[in-house]
User: Fold this.
Amino acid sequence: MTAPVPALRDGLRQEVLEANLAIPRAGLAALTWGNVSGIDREAGLFVIKPSGVPYDSLTLEDLVTVRLSDGEIVHGRLRPSTDTETHRSLYRAFPSVGGVTHTHSTHAVAFAQARREIPVLGTTHADTFNGPVPCTPDLTPQQCATDYEYNTGQAIVDLLNSDDTRAAEVPGALVAGHGPFTWGPTARKSLEHAVICEAVADIALHTFALAPTSPPPPQHLLDRHYTRKHGPDAYYGNPDPGRTTPV
Assistant:
């Protein structure tokens, strides 16, 4: 007998499904090379894509619900993504995170394989990331041999010094030799940050092709672009109906 679907925040499962389906449409992954999850903090549960299921056949019923505290599957007939423990590690470390996306998008992976951060070369980057998108060190043989996926998440946590404010300001990181993980207050927002991470990686590589020693713009310009979209004085965009703050 199938266990009943656990009570979760309204719309969470649908949001996670839609974010996963958006990965191939956004050109962020081939085959099944990506996953999105979303968490219900009050319930202590998160929902994630199952392992190896093609996007074109993914349904709401395929999603897997996992307990945050111990990683146990509480609902779902399929195995969750092999990256589930990385997602769980990020959720446990950063309370502001409500969704996580992992992809193998071409240009962000190129930076990860080069063991290089994505530098801030212009305002497109500064609009979302308040600093470079950092890259972890290589995992050790021991980290790969035992609890590899959880250690992958811990490498990101250590990179950001377990700082939730920093995680909110720079909502993404590269895992050396692997690829990008991005996050945000919702699953949808984490997917948006994955799109932006790939775009700024692409732009950076084009910039280096034209000017290999291109310096960053002045910090006051980068700060202006970040703060007009984030923080108490943000004024970019227009509010959604029923909201009082810009989005």
Remarks:
- The two ends are 43 Å apart (CA to CA).
- The chain has nine helices and seven strands.
- The longest helix spans residues 187-210.
